[in-house]
Amino acid sequence: MTSPLDATIVKDQKPESPSIAHADRVDRPSPKNIVRIEKNLTSLGFFTPSNKKIKSLNAKTVVFGRQIEGRRVVAQVVILPSAAYGLPVTSDQDKYLAFQKIVNNIRQEKGEVRNPVGFSSAEILRILGNSDAGKNYDDIIEWGKRMTLTGVCSEGVVYFAARKTWASDTFHIFERFVSFGNQMPDGSKADRNYVWLSDWQLENINHNHLIPIDLESYRQLKNHTAKALVPLLQVWLYATLQAGFFEKRYRDLCQILNITKYKHASKIKEKLGPSLNELQRHHYLSGWRILSTSDRTDFKVVFFHGEKFQSEFGSTEEQPQAAAVLQNNFDQGKFPGGNIDRELLFQLMKRGITEKASISLLSQLQPNQQVLDQLDWGDHLVQHSPKRHKFFNPAGLYIHLIKENAAPPETFETDRKKKLREAALQDREQEEQILAALQLAYMNYREQELDSFVQTQPDEFSILVEAKKASLSQESHWRRIFAGKQDILQKAAEREVRKDLSSRVGIMSFEEFRQKGMIEEQQTVLASTRTREALVTPVAQGETSHLTQNVKV
Fold this sequence. Notes:
By secondary structure, this protein is of the alpha+beta class. The chain folds into three domains: about 25-220, no CATH class; about 220-335, Arc Repressor Mutant, subunit A, CATH 1.10.10.10; about 420-505, no CATH class.
């Protein structure tokens, strides 16, 4: 049977009129032209913004932090590109969204999506508003192959909606792709393109694990980074409906988008600005800011919800006014609450506490109050409540914990405690590695000392070995082992002699060896310091002499 990926590319026929079968799925009117796409693929950075093929990368790795059952865990996904077709890029995302539009209509008509999913290239081009040029048909065939051959190695990133579990496995998006005119599994010739979706894609689509995208607005975007951000923003902004804005660490954003990370805010604005401004012009965002993180180790991008942000419950017109208030404060060059910790304010508002109440709480904190510990404990209580709706006002619970400065039970591991424990474990592992390296160095030292003795005293060593051989041969136990095996007897005798010589050669004990190494290290550091001082002193003396001469003049 001919492999669907190795088969000769044949363009699928263009329908002569809209009345041809399946064409009505594309032309069905939709007020906002919404397409619902599977959430996993959206959030894991599968598509990389680029107008060129990317074949230079062997893999693209993205690390995530997420809350699972009240605990923050680190998850990772590795995108494994095809050597022939490279990483999926922006144009692949365009076609994937158009394909999902077809999948949506199939589900709406039949109630369920099953493999294979048939479509014509003309349908994809019509949805995207592209011409029917021959190259565009070839690009769709190449897209199908790239989506089939690209792997996704998930470590707790891909979610199964039906099973309600995070998967650690290696997947594909398309399990199989057969283009028009090539051989189907049953031996027939394909009358259109066919895609076999992966099991996890089918499961999540049929269980409504989807997010909505305004395809018409998306098509109007020109910037590749802006297009790549649209599905990501849909996930991020939905998660922060009550706060009205979302913050993303700059380094994490660079990792997801696979873009160069810059050190200065001006350069970051120069590179990201065109994409974010385009998103703002098309009302995906109402504004954006580049700010330093609270620990000053990185930058963060602040996204403010725009009018075209589509949530599963409605548009931004229905959400609180926190985003507009916060954006106005940023515009005035100030932040509400003066020296209030921005990260803590964001964490409180993310949990449904109003801006005013959050600022009031943070302005009355006790010295060294561990607010994040209290929020972790509150998350745990809300998520593990015996009754699903026990906490009708979770925000009130968080306020109470902070006002009362309630300490979580000693048995509860907060994120802060977990980091301290992991740091301590890392320190212990490092100490163990240092000790193991020192023990290995000591063993090498012993062997070198013994080798030196053997080389300088070969006659004495030979006499000792012969005596040891005679001694071992007299013992009944060794006699049976060494019977007729003189080479083994020779080696055993040499080992025993070297062991006996350890005390005679003057080999240091392990503790003495360790102390000597520490002294040598200190002497090396001292010598290095003196060398630097010697280099600096002549310069200083030269400057003093020059100043003295100036004074005399």
